[in-house]
Amino acid sequence: MKGPFERLKYDLRRLWECPVCKRRERAPGSVTFRHCLCRMQEQGGQPVVMKLIVDGVERLAPRVALQHEPLAEEGSERDVQGSAEILPPDPGPSQPPG
After folding, report:
1. What pairs with residue 17 in β-bridges?
2. Domain spans of the chain?
């Protein structure tokens, strides 16, 4: 099962075309054959088997392209390893002897 936005992003249907009348029709991916009724109006007409044109996932939404910023050069980074200052521990509040 696709997520809530995946079903809107992709078209999972198959595209069929009649070789006689060139009519195109979309059907779910579970359909494995289609008949066109364009010749049924003739006397003794038989249904025409449609040809599969497109079978596969078709993306409906435009592709998202992310633009990344170039990495900073090594010389521009600041060396912070030796710049740390060490302070003596805080003695805390002094209490009178008691």
Report:
1. 24, 51
2. 6-60
